[in-house]
Iron chaperone (Sporolactobacillus inulinus CASD), 125 residues
Amino acid sequence: MDTFADYLARIDHPQHQARLKEILDWVTKQFPQLMPKIAWNQPMYTDHGTFIVGFSVAKRHLAVAPERIAIDRFSDEIVQAGYTHSKELVRIPWDHPVDFSLLQKIIAFNSSDKADCTTFWRKSL
């Protein structure tokens, strides 16, 4: 978790810091093939040089950014989990539990769907 230590240390709210650390630790354990990195001033994970998922902290929520195609695919489940989303990110309110099974599906989908991807971002269709 050394990759994210400085980022986590800059989070002022202790509960937000702990929540994000819990999620980052979980991703690292569940998906050991993913590379943790800081890019665009946020923690993210990549696989063979392609983006898989990123996270960012906001006042009212933790944002999960898996790219639009994953959000479109899991939109109903995202809403059922009690989260809102835009085209590019999922908002997990700080006072809601993390649906790790949904997070697992989203990350696994991106890893599988982008297995042959040779660019950082998916190319627009």
Notes: The first strand starts at residue 35 and ends at 39. The mean pLDDT is 94.
